[in-house]
Design goal:
The chain contains 29 helices and 21 strands. Helix 3 packs antiparallel against helix 4.
Length: about 675
Amino acid sequence: MNWDEQRLLWSSAAVNVWDIRYNTLWEGQDWLSYRLPANIFLFAVSGSAYVQIDDRKYYLKKHHLLHAGKGMGMDIMPAKHEFSFYLIYYKATLPAVAAGSAVNRLLAESRAFDKVYPIILPEPGSVHSLIRRMYEEWRQSGVLVQIRMKSMLYEMIYELLSQLHHSKDRGSPSDLVAYALRYIHEHYADAVTMEQLAELLGCSSSYMYRLFKAEIGKSPNEMIIGIRMEHAKRRLLTTKLNLRDIALSVGYSDVYYFSRLFKKQFGVSPLQFRRREYGTDALHLSPSNASVSSIVPAGSLSYNRNVNDNHYHNEGERQLNLSNRPKSSMTALVMLCLSLLVSACQTNNNANSASEGSSAPAAASAVNSATATASQSSETSSETRVYKHKHGETEIPTNPKRVVTAYHLGHMLALGVRPLGAATYILQYSEKAMDTTGVIDLGAPLNLEVIAGLEPDLIILIEAYLEPSGGYEKFSKIAPTVVLEANQDPVKDIRLVGDLLNKKDEAEQWIKQYEDKIAQTKERVLQKFGPDETFTILNVRSEKLQMIYRDRNMGGNIIYSYWGLKPQEKVLTDLINGIDDESSYLNISKEAIPDFAGDHLILASDASAEDAVGQLLDSGLWKSLDAVKNNRVYRIDFDQFLFNDPIFAMKQVDLLADVLTRKQ
């Protein structure tokens, strides 16, 4: 991206803000095929996601910024549990200018404000604060708000361009290199150049070159060639493709140039390599021979030099298209929040009137019931301690009695503690696996007045719930507030919550039960499978979305980490050891499924994806897989394996053990 040109364009632009929104999507809630009605800035607040703009895919983490133009198609797929972000919709126009002016030349040469580009800010805090204030003021109304939004958008653009102009470092070098490596892995067969990578990341080619040399000892071009040659070597070993087809499949139209690069990389020509590996029985191939088979699984270059292949067996709004998750009616939610507020006020104003109190709505009665029950159980301890968390140090009760949590509902219930309330999505999702009786729905976004009415002595949140309700300070004014990380690790998370609630003994008891269950089921599972049999977890969400899961959730932590079953080779190299980010999965094309398919396939889906699953199961690609031919495909319910809280986690061990050991 040419930032000098951007400064020139913005200095002449007239802008209007169309809309500002804040959204939280959970893993499995995908925004698909959304056509942008205006230019946008997308600012990531928490979590991570794959964001695809037309045919270009980006991986966004906290404080990453992405710009896209009106009319472009956008898909958002949360990569780690949740993804919270702001969307600023705007329109920019340029005044009529002289024919020979620099601005006019830019307009003639480009789409001006319609370009797609990511930005990794050196100092994102100031931009984050400004966008939050824009969102808060946007919710007001009037002409003055529109004027204020224009000035604040200019202020944001000034801050962006100023940081990029004055900072020598375009964000964290490690972030830039990791982002570039991911892009190379996903586009190795395309015409990837250092200039293209530099433009994607908003830095110069020379800076990108220095980063690569400093952090991994190779230039971007050397990495591209290395990855392509590794794929070519794999195809030479596992297919009957001729050299020309192999060269084309890894991005080279000139087969002789490809052969020279291969020999430089491995010391022998491609044909010599194939003959050496297969001896005199090797297929005699030349660049002109016809291909007699399609491409089958290709390997990938792993950047983890300490890979042990046996490790896993030896160790124990404008309405967008949201796929998968069941969603409550927004109208019903708004009405519920209003009824809670109105009813609570009526109840307080008429506390001495039995007849009026008995006519209060059921929702208000539930709030009062929860308050009364918690008050009668015991007096809140006056002892306190200082607890360090993501937003600093907070003085909290040593033995909290009246706890509100947005996210950690299952963790608290597993410890024998029933919270006063929980967030809408968590409450609705958890009803499938646990008894949530008496837990109040706190809304989405969290309703501060409802929380205050419950008179909590401790509030437990994760980052995603702060922004839409006004930030950390708004919650901390109600009660001591702690912000925790959602680790997606049941053992780590229950220890964290157990310490917070002074329930360490109960947490260790649960962990002991969980470890016993793991050990019992592991013995049963390992009796059925050999040490070299490989496994793959495939999630089908729609016709265009197929995910391969790693060793974090969707049963991956149980299968690979706890039971020690062996992941398929590319799952190990490209996901478990190859993805240096927070993502739980890798989004792949349908054609790439054979590359990742192990001896055994765990297929995860929910009811909304049945049509897409049916089409896949009927396809020739699916029927050609060894796991399918050998009747080694196991179906699991996506919804049962999405969350990793202690109650879901305990159930998942039994579900997986049953499905894997059941007679096919």
